[in-house]
Design brief:
single chain, alpha/beta, TIM Barrel, Non-ribosomal Peptide Synthetase Peptidyl Carrier Protein, Chain A, 2 domains, 8-stranded parallel β-barrel, two-stranded antiparallel sheet, 10 strands, binds flavin mononucleotide
Length: 344
């Protein structure tokens, strides 16, 4: 698809997820079928400190273009500076976060809390768009502040007037947190009025759901977050289903064994040994959740302190799994969209 001046493989995007969509994961999702991956948020004020974490987040070495970097904050000038800073470091698209309900962010009135103050939204959007001429700026929002203040339509108008090039919408209000189900009516209503591409987001967990959300909203693209954790091949599964109406077979155990092994190596190289082992635990848990014998495996794996033991445990688990199954087979219906560990 054509998207804000770039030609993408498809219209399936990886949602920005702080602590998840680091460079290794974005690269892997793109390799396994995602058309675009938005990087986790880089807060505008932390840029001042140049912390290791912020620098790692802004590292795009070897990433498949276009590189989209999300920024968050409530001060127009600081947001403008953050946009410029990221463009100088290789960002080709700047995405503004007004959709994350995390407490840490809402307390400083950024993320979805901003949706309440429409004049301020306008000032931020204009400041960012003007700061990076030639770089498309996109916006991510929830449907509104709470159920009686779903002001997404007025935010759309403000966004279009400010020169925003695309709008991603999570079908929940800020007050909803992650409870209940995402609704798609508000996204459909916004799409009906929009002159810019609309990206629908929220609770897309399967090829069928992807097709449903595309049809229900008329959106130009889909954005998928939690369901891709530990399952980056979901993008190619959805792509195949949307193109053919048929399902790919579940991936071979041997393929996912290789994918995870390479993912772990990437994480160790990216984060260094100590942090790498810690970050890897989270991903290993997601990959194995619902597979035979995985609960006791995860329990053991989480205690292992170093790379070699972690790699050996993963290896043993997948070799054991391959003895029972050629293809991945889950023993329970997975709720990939649990909110475990979420700040909101
Ligand atoms: C762990 C986690 C971190 C997230 N971090 C961000 C973020 O930094 N910026 C943002 O705009 N949204 C963030 N989100 C929200 C997601 O981008 C997405 O809107 C939400 O998870 C709904 O999509 P899903 O149902 O496909 O997961 C985060 C979500 C999760 C689960």
């Amino acid at each position: 698809m054509e998207f804000v001046g770039f030609s993408l493989r498809n219209n399936l995007f990886v949602a920005p997820m702080a602590g998840v969509t680091d460079r290794p994961f974005r690269q892997l999702c793109k390799k396994m079928g995602a058309g675009l991956a938005v990087s986790e948020m880089v807060t505008s004020n932390s840029l001042l400190y140049g912390s290791a974490k912020t620098q790692r987040r802004a590292n795009h070495d070897g990433e498949v273009a276009p590189i989209s970097v999300q920024i968050a904050g409530a001060a127009p000038q600081m947001m403008a500076d953050a946009a410029r800073h990221n463009v100088d470091r290789g960002a080709q698209i700047i995405d503004i976060n007004m959709g994350c309900p995390a407490k840490k962010i809402c307390n400083v009135m950024a993320g979805s809390a901003l949706l309440r103050d429409e004049p301020l939204v306008g000032r931020i959007l204009e400041a960012v768009v003007n700061a990076v001429p030639g770089t498309p700026v996109t916006l991510k929002i929830r449907t509104g502040w709470d159920k009686s203040n779903r002001n997404a339509l007025s935010i759309l108008k403000i966004a279009e007037q400010s020169g925003i090039r695309a709008l991603a919408m999570h079908g929940r209000t800020r007050a909803c947190g992650y409870t209940g189900f995402a609704e798609y009516e508000t996204i459909a209503a916004v799409k009906a009025q929009a002159h810019i591409p609309i990206i629908a987001n929220g609770d897309i967990t399967s090829p069928e759901k992807a097709k449903f959300v595309l049809e229900a909203t008329g959106a130009d693209a889909l954005m998928i977050g939690r369901a891709a954790q530990g399952r980056p091949w979901l993008f190619r599964e959805i792509e195949h289903y949307l193109n053919t109406g048929t399902h790919l077979l579940p991936p071979r155990v041997s393929e996912i064994h290789e994918v995870l092994t390479a993912h772990l190596e990437d994480l160790y190289a990216f984060y260094g040994i100590e942090t790498g082992v810690r970050v890897a635990r989270k991903h290993i848990s997601w990959y194995t959740k619902g597979l035979i014998g995985s609960a006791s495996f995860r329990h053991r794996m989480n205690q292992l302190p170093d790379i070699v033991q972690q790699q050996m445990a993963v290896n043993d688990f997948f070799v054991g799994l391959a003895e029972h199954n050629e293809h991945l087979s889950y023993i329970q219906t997975e709720d990939h969209n649990d909110t475990e560990g979420l700040a909101a």
